[in-house]
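Marked as duplicate of an earlier ticket. Keeping the data here for the record.
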Amino acid sequence: MPGKLMTKKLMTGVIRAASFFLLAGTAAVAAPASNSPLAKMGVGSNGGTLSLPMEIAISLTLLTLLPAAVMCITPFLRITVVLHFLRQALGTQSTPSNQVLIGLALFLTIVIVQPVAQDIFHKAWEPMDQGKMTASQAFEEGSKPLKTFLARFAREKDIKLFVEVTKAPPPRNVEDLSLSVLIPSYILSELKTGFQIGALLFLPFLVIDLVVASVTLSVGMIQLPPVMISAPFKILLFVLVDGWNLVVGSLVKSFY
């Protein structure tokens, strides 16, 4: 039971922290009426004319962006790219299935972002829920741990690119960078890192394919696809070196 309660609290904290940034964005879209649920959160305290159904529609629309946020501004991006390359290198086609790989990537992401999500939850969501700060203030406080996390893995070259694209003033530190600069910079950096790891994973399996192809050609087995012979050897090699433990362990440790 303690384990189940801990898992439930972890999932709740991650979901709330992720959805918080999307819900807080309604303050920039519209100013709801003072007696609405969003107004109680501090959104649109200056008084607005939007009806409750419109507020709900805006909130639901923003919530549709939650999967994209989870996929792009978390370690989920790098993990899925690496796992896809690994499956291609093994030559197992659809094994493991997409559902298994996405599920594995999702739970690894939850483990990695747990400290950041808890930090956002305690610094932003709880004070806002208790009425100690408005949604805009909570968004400002909650974005600080997220900025720190994104800046750790965003390359300076990518940050410079989006600072020039957005024509933002040169930042003096991480706090001066906006999320509109850090998020795309983080995505580009993670894509490059994921492709680099994927290329390294391909090399040992590529050697096996080359050896098998050379042997089959030398003995005159031209019509036999080398992949049919190399696939068992690649799977056997991967199992013998405990590949899943090595790959997953290296991925998780790369974020610490």
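See parent ticket for discussion. The two ends are 29 Å apart (CA to CA).
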